[in-house]
Task: inverse folding
């Protein structure tokens, strides 16, 4: 057995830190300038076309990006389909609720990029997902921002790698902060990225515990607004089909804005992991700040999304460019 002294341990941590930062340092905005200069417009056009078909494209793509980056980094490994010999990430129970429109957005954008002769097999699925995510945020009324590019697609995808990597709707602030810290993201990044819940929906089963069986003292979570409880119970009665979905933001579910934080101030966070951002004194001042200033929230969200896009990236020979986003080459 090798005993590691403090010096060697510090050197190991430093080497890992440098390796992570060297990978993300290879990302740049003009990565495809010489190979596929119009790639961002091609992707945006494909995303716009997809949104015209269904609004679900927007929250589905945004959620897909988070689930990809938090498991093995932003490498499109969540796109891989399972085979007889490998159960992939997308088939882990925590990913089964990912809407198919998110996957289809990346597939359609990839087809559009590869239809341009000089772009064919030059742009990674990981970068296409990154660009598409930026575009759905902007097309829903959110900020426009520049993305860093140059990711390679991951070479592995397994359901077992997902366990413990994604936040649960029951998480408290300590659990949220710890999970985000594992990905190099700060408490402020966590609060900003939680703001993505201004869009999209969740299944009723994810909130049953807050409505009907919260704890030994209260059947209903006392932090939920009483009028909101009535609304939620009407939408999610106990005998309802578990596949029925409800909006994350009860007020402006199709608009990317700071109303998510205003909702938290009124006790209208859908998940425990949402409402705790307001009930915990450590995060409450940030919620109040962004509830009162949408521009500050947008700036924080952009910064945190760029940081998220650097998590666990593969560059150079650490990955490849998939011909089919759903299968390894």
Result:
């Amino acid at each position: 057995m090798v005993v590691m002294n403090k010096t060697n341990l510090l050197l190991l941590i430093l080497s890992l830190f440098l390796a992570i930062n060297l990978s993300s340092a290879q990302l740049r905005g003009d990565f495809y300038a010489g190979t596929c200069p119009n790639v961002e417009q091609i992707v945006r056009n494909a995303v716009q076309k997809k949104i015209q078909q269904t609004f679900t494209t927007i929250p589905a793509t945004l959620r897909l990006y988070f689930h990809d980056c938090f498991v093995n980094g932003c490498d499109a490994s969540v796109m891989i389909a399972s085979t007889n010999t490998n159960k992939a990430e997308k088939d882990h129970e925590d990913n089964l609720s990912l809407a198919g429109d998110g996957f289809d957005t990346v597939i359609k954008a990839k087809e559009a990029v590869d239809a341009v002769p000089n772009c064919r097999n030059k742009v990674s699925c990981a970068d296409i997902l990154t660009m598409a995510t930026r575009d759905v945020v902007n097309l829903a009324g959110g900020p426009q921002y520049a993305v860093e590019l140059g990711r390679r697609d991951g070479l592995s995808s397994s359901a077992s790698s997902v366990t413990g990597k994604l936040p649960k709707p029951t998480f408290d602030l300590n659990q949220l902060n710890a999970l985000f810290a594992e990905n190099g993201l700060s408490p402020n990044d966590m609060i900003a990225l939680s703001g993505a819940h201004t869009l999209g929906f969740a299944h009723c089963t994810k909130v049953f515990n807050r409505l009907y069986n919260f704890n030994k003292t209260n059947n209903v979570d006392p932090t939920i607004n009483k009028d909101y409880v009535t609304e939620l119970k009407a939408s999610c009665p106990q005998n309802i089909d578990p596949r029925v979905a409800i909006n994350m933001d009860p007020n402006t579910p199709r608009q990317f804005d700071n109303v998510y934080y205003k909702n938290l101030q009124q006790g209208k966070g859908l998940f425990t992991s949402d409402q705790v951002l307001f009930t915990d004194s450590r995060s409450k001042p940030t919620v109040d700040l962004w509830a009162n200033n949408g521009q500050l929230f947008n700036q924080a969200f952009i910064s945190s999304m760029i940081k998220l896009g650097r998590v666990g990236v593969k560059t150079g020979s650490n990955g490849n460019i998939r011909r089919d986003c759903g299968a390894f080459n």
In short: The radius of gyration is 20 Å. The chain has two domains: 29-166+312-318, 173-307.
